[in-house]
Amino acid sequence: MQIKPSRREATHERILEVASLALRRNGYSGVGVADVMKQAGLTHGGFYAHFPSRDALLAEAIARAGRDNADGTMRRIARKQAGGKSTLRALIEDYLSEAHLRDVEGGCVVAALSSEMPRQSPELQQAASERVRSLVNLVSHALPPGGTADQAMAIAGSLVGSLQLARTLGSNAQGKAMLAAARNALLAQYASD
């Protein structure tokens, strides 16, 4: 039996959902408390009943974005595995897909925010570091037997960097070509299935 969340818990989750989307869409400096609360259908005054500070909201929103993205990624990987693809191939193809190129708001929080991290508070840097470790862990578990921690870190870095560069070029022929080149290189080097 699933327990229904309290009204306070449901409100807290709604605020996090709005903030996690806004964070990936607008970056750290583009997320204001008043805007998040308004988009969540709440008043600005209610914010401090849920979060002690803006950074606390953003730290939780980073974690929420990471969980949401990981859940979606795992579902898509499972569908590809059912079609006979290896976990690593499915992960690389999913991460470096044209859909992920277009979906900044719903996509990987690491790719959306990592270039901004050096300028953030220690609390936000810690939350983002957890997401990076989670991504490396996901890649590590996708590696075939004999895969190493160094390979997982190299692949994770290549995934994030390639997506960021492709997004910089845009959801056009150049951006898609960047993704395809990175995807093909990673598959050739690490996923020979």
**In DSSP terms, counting alpha (H) and pi (I) runs of 4 or more, how many helices?**
9
Shape: globular
> Approximately how much beta-strand content do the residues carry?
under 5%
Could you give me the name of the CATH homologous superfamily?
Answer: Tetracycline Repressor, domain 2
Structural class: mainly alpha
CATH architecture designation:
Orthogonal Bundle
Short description:
Helices cover 70% and strands 0% of the residues. With 193 residues, it is an all-alpha fold.
Explained architecture:
This protein has 193 residues and is mainly alpha-helical. The longest helix is centred in the middle third of the chain and has 29 residues, at 54-82. The chain has helices at 7-26, 33-39, 54-82, 87-95, 98-102, 109-113, 122-142, 149-169, 173-190. Helix 3 (54-82) packs across helix 4 (87-95) and helix 8 (149-169) runs antiparallel to helix 9. The chain has a single domain (7-190), classed as Tetracycline Repressor, domain 2 (Orthogonal Bundle), CATH 1.10.357. The termini are far apart.
Task: List key phrases describing it.
single chain; 193 residues; mainly alpha; Tetracycline Repressor, domain 2; 9 helices
Provide the fold topology.
Elements: H1 7-26, H2 33-39, H3 54-82, H4 87-95, H5 98-102, H6 109-113, H7 122-142, H8 149-169, H9 173-190
